[in-house]
């Protein structure tokens, strides 16, 4: 019987996330996920480097779609968390932040209670 890690890996690379095998960013996680305490200037540089990789990637549309639909953290498909939020896709709670992200139309996003239900 296969272990959970083997089963999960098989699903990721032969199913839902099959597109990741062709991703230009493979092995470069440090560019796509912020380290703790990252300063805004360092973030701008890191995300610029990540964006340049994304712009050459053949699977960028799939990556962006995945991040938007799954409320991913980090830089995916040529977008930061803030850019996804501005397009109407947001994470439940941005890493290291307490701010409410705007929706694509500029309206504030209602806070969620502990069960993920909007309270407003």
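-> sequence recovered:
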């Amino acid at each position: 019987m296969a272990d959970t890690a083997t089963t999960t890996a098989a699903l990721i690379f032969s199913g839902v996330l099959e597109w990741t095998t062709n991703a230009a960013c493979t092995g470069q996680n440090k560019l796509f996920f912020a380290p703790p305490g990252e300063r805004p200037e360092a973030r701008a540089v890191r995300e610029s480097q990540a964006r340049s990789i994304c712009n050459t990637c053949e699977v960028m549309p799939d990556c962006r779609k995945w991040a938007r639909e799954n409320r991913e953290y980090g830089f995916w498909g040529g977008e930061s968390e803030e850019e996804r939020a501005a397009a109407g896709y947001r994470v439940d709670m941005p890493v290291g932040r307490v701010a409410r992200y705007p929706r694509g139309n500029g309206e504030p996003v209602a806070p969620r209670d502990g069960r993920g239900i909007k309270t407003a």
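The helical segments are 4-14, 29-32, 40-54, 60-70, 81-86.
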